[in-house]
Design brief:
Number of helices: 3
Helix content: over 70%
Number of strands: 0
Strand content: under 5%
Radius of gyration: 16 Å
Largest sheet: none
Structural class: mainly alpha
Order of helices and strands: HHH
């Protein structure tokens, strides 16, 4: 069981590193997230506000990572 947890943890770290290094993958994930949000909420206005919030959070995260 401990072996399985270590393998899963290693895979998640690998996927996380890949996701962080591939900007196209990040943009694709964001686009899919916003599309799913639009389909589930049914409100374009709410989706736009969510996109703005996600974008601001993303820029803040990128800025703090670049300062380090």
């Amino acid at each position: 069981m401990e072996n399985l947890i270590q393998e899963i943890s290693a895979k998640l770290k690998e996927w996380s590193a890949l996701f962080q290094s591939q900007h196209q993958l990040q943009y694709g994930a964001l686009a899919v997230y916003l599309l799913l949000w639009l389909l589930s909420s049914g409100s374009l206005t709410t989706t736009i506000w969510v996109a703005v919030g996600v974008g601001l959070g993303w820029m803040t995260g990128r800025g703090s990572r670049q300062e380090s």
